[in-house]
Amino acid sequence: MLNMNEIVGQYDILFVCIDSLRYDVAVQEEERGGTPVLNQYGRWRKCQAPGNFTYPSHQAMFAGFLPVDTAVRDMKQREKLFFSEDIGMGRKAPPESFCFQGSTFVEGLEREGYGTYCIGGLSFFDKRTDIGRVMPSFFQNSYWHPSFGCRVKESAANQIRFAVDKLRDIPKERRVMMYINISAIHYPNYFYIEGAKRDSVEAHAAALRYVDGELGRLFGAFQEKGDTFCICCSDHGTCYGEDGYLYHGFNHPLVNTVPYKHFIL
Questions:
Q1: pLDDT per residue over 40-49, tens digit each?
Q2: CB-based contact 127:186 (threshold 8 Å)
Q3: What is the pLDDT of residue 89?
């Protein structure tokens, strides 16, 4: 079991959410060798999403309720990297958890001296509306640009280029917590297959391969800065007509099951 009290304060922290990524597609590409960058950092864990679309899932994750291994049947046995001192489970933090103060673990890390950064993707992070300003407000520094959005084929390249440039402006001695909401896999994704006219599982997989090809630059920049603890997961899955369901925002096994891994860079 990882001890987060040995991580916080000693490591930078990178949280990459590959929005809408399905577990079955993530494992398929892992086994095919379609994601060589992500494959370097261990196998995907099969987990339950904390919500069935972006907003509720992120509200839970930022409060420390990250995806839970599907094998867990007792809530008290879930792995707890971050534990709020204010709520739940007898308010007694497991010894390996980082017990944080504040409304989110992001705020908790800020209180420990971290500079916190959000690179938005979907509209819930675009700051153009009241609801789009909620989650960016959790961070000291938050950024969004139309070129980061899910309708832009090069969105991941644009987000990661911006994140790397921002990271290189930060002194190496300054501890950083950065969150990136990768939007490329979210609908629409048909344009990742030449000539396609509609979103599909195949386009979803092609989008993941594209994202993997961009992640190496991000991981490399953090390695250049110093030791980094990385959380990489999806917030929910999505459907492409299975059992008559399209996309997400409802409870279906393909929506509720997500890939998750954490690792040291």
A1: 999 999 999 9
A2: no
A3: 58
